[in-house]
Amino acid sequence: MTDMTQNIVKLKDELTGMVTASNDLPSLEQARITALGKKGRITDLMKTLGGMTPEERKTTGAALNELKNEIADLIKKQELALKKQVMDEKLATETIDVTLPVRPEAKGSIHPISQTIEELITIFAAMDFTVAEGPDIEDDWHNFTALNFPPGHPAREMQDTFFLPDNPNETGEKAKKVLRTHTSSTQIRYMTEHKPPIRTIMMGRVYRSDHDMTHTPMFHQMEALVIDKETHMGHLKGCLMDFVRAYFEIDDLPVRFRPSFFPFTEPSAEIDIGCTRKDGGLKIGAGDDWLEIGGSGMVHPNVLKNCGIDPDEYQGFAFGMGIDRIAMLKYGIPDLRTFFESDTRWLNHYRFDPLNRPNRATNS
Ligand code: PHE
Predict the structure, then answer these.
(1) Which atom of ligand 1 is nearest to the CA of 181?
(2) Model confidence over 126-153: pLDDT tens digits?
């Protein structure tokens, strides 16, 4: 055996010992650097190849390469063994008690709008209504024309509409884009896509250019639509009264219908609920005063026709109201603007529990 061969055998023993003795990942990394690093032991020997005869270089080079591969394999194996050991230790010592209660400080709270929306869905689901949604960016057809607003009619301006710039690819009155001023536009979408009988509620954001304590440029509306054979105003009144009494949780809440006008309903009525106003305060329930909460009426035959429904066969009713408004009334929130300020102190004040949501099982 040449000196060199002896050196290689010795080095192999030494490095093998060092790798197998590494009992954690940092010391194994140290062993790797010592053996295979740029200034490592094997690399050092490689550097001596240059001064050898071609014969020597051939055998020594091959032996060193073999050593290098063996040590690299050994390091890989040791690494896997150490990683498995770390994992085994973790599995043996770390346990998760899935029965522990949630930490109270980590619990957020539900925004009053979301709370109210879920209450509405719960009440209407119990009356067999489905829930539908429509786009916030509407076109003139769905927001106005199909709802029987005559072209150029001042009612289009009555709603303080935000008109969007014209799209050169889509021209004409019908395609004109607006931020929807009411959820009634979803009535058109729903009736165009579904055949009666229809029983659905529609909810979402609506937009009007208005801003004060009780108006924000964006707010939320809820709308109910029922289309069937022989649906009449009695159904509208019954449905609305059941709904407002369930929502405000007042069984004998007085409800009054006041004649009104909407282009898309005929006859139309404003909905008032009973209340008492005293010393600047407002209390919902039997009292000597009335508070308007929304609009309603029998769906206009022209609207049915615009959606491909035969008004001689089907009739129906619709009503709509501001979600923010009925949330303010139920939960005593005085300023609408606070809904949209994202102040967590305000949210915490109302504290609607995210783990106890209204649903058909709890019915609350
Ligand atoms: N869309 C009407 C509004 O925003 C409300 C309404 C809905 C009236 C449905 C009648 C029927 O004022």
Answers:
(1) 4
(2) 999 999 999 999 999 999 999 999 887 7
